[in-house]
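Researcher: For the annotation table, I need structure tokens for UDP-glucose 6-dehydrogenase. Please keep the output clean. Sequence:
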Amino acid sequence: MDTAEVSSICCIGAGYVGGPTAAVMAYYNPHLTVTVVDRDQARIDRWNSENLPLYEPGLLQMLQSARDGSTEDMEHQQMATVSPQSERRRPNLLFSTDVAKNIGAADMILIAVNTPTKKRGLGAGRATDVTALEAVTKQIAIHAKAGAILVEKSTVPCRTADLIRETLKTYRPGVHFEVLSNPEFLSAGTAISDLVSPSRVLIGSQPTTEGLRAATALERVYSWVDPCKIMHTNTYSSELAKLVANAMLAQRISSINSISAICEKTGADIHEISNAIGADARIGSKYLKAGVGFGGSCFGKDIRSLAYLAETLGLPEVAEYWQQVLKINEWQGTRFARKVVKRLNGTLSGKKITVLGYAFKPGTDDTRESPALEGIRILLDDAPAEVAIFDPFCCPTVVREEVGRLCGSEVLKCNDGSVEVYENAYEACDRSHAIIIMTDCDEFRQSAKAGYEVSNLENRLDWPKIVYNLEKPRWVFDGRGIVDLDVMEKVGVRVEGIGRVGWGGL
Ligand code: NAD
Ligand code: UGA
């Protein structure tokens, strides 16, 4: 496939990665046709509507342009500066369930299917489940045009490109396909700005003329990215670099969380520690926020995958090293939830506990592997009268369904259980015995400048109102370090946080 010949792209998997990535590629390449395919009809229907299957700032505007041909100015500043269009454009982004047909029509095929942790069998709970990837590779082998370029967008174990090549050879002998690795580094909640201004684009290819030609073809698709941000490596390095990037980010979080426990027993303050060490350019300030632990669909599974890879390569010490990152993460969430129970005299009986923040982080409705859910499970063991949940980014019906599915439907208030999900933060907090902050949403933050008296800034919770309606002795458990301990204590609130000495001293 010559670089100039790529005119149609098929992205398999209309999820958190496939949808936004295809939207941005289509938006910046009006000459290309980008079709996103998925076997999930309901998901594709939502991508074809205004009611998108996921929330990402800027995504709807991108779709309105690339999918619908709308010419209204993009709100996104960064997009506006490099926007290719000023006149009406040809819609060039499509969503379909016809996987086979669209694979057959594409010059380049992106694989963006899910790669979760295996649930059963060999390597259960650790190895990556490549079932979806294997299935789509077989479909590609059968339906793809000879010479189409395959691109791994999914996060995969190192040497998965070889597995893909083998599958292609088995089902399509004698036909050559180039397989590239192009892992995605976007974060939930900032997907569009991460895609528009990536820190880097990694393209792994075979060190052959055909491999490098395919890599150049993919580089051209990233037409909006500064070429000096595009990095070429071999396929294995690219695959492994993605796992390592997530593992290293998660490792920093577990490292700072482990120190937070020392702070709570010594009088040191974890925020001061983070600031002090983060000022050293060799360490850097990012991913040093202590809290209830990391969540999300990827950090956990990617570390498990890396540790399993090390184990299968006969490197148990390496596997153990990365497992420890997960152990600390689990321990951090558990010790925080247990502290809540301990501080409430070891019993939650007859008490209402309010959980603020349910998604795995602010700015997203993605609830996969959310630390809040684990915390709620621990609280439920102590049979509270009510666990009230509020998250400004999550739909209460969806959260209710999920808690019912993962903890058992009997825990829901509608089934005489104790869990209720609220649309309104004040109702969730009303007459509560303790508030537990699980995500660092701006809405939950106190105004750093103004403190308690005027904390009711736009979108921010009116903390005085909340505190007034709490049951005495008025507890707030701050799992993300966002309320001011001194200010709260002055008005009679007992605050326990992470990484600092809480109410009552050492
Ligand atoms: P997802 O579960 O949101 O989406 C995957 C989609 O693939 C689903 O819609 C599913 O129906 C579809 N699919 C599965 N098998 C299929 C098949 N045989 N035919 C057609 N469609 C099929 O997953 P995601 O969050 O988008 O993640 C995809 C990959 O990207 C994973 O490997 C993940 O590790 C990686 N990743 C995710 C993120 C993130 O923020 N979510 C960021 C970077 C990388
Ligand atoms: C992460 C990576 O940041 C992305 O680069 C990567 O592409 C993605 O995983 C993936 O492969 O799926 P994401 O999971 O969306 O992105 O979210 P992050 O912002 O990295 O946060 C992950 C978790 O760590 C959240 O629960 C967050 O609250 C927590 N966190 C983050 C901390 O506890 N402290 C910090 O300092 C930073």
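Researcher: And a one-line annotation?
Model: The two ends are 67 Å apart (CA to CA).
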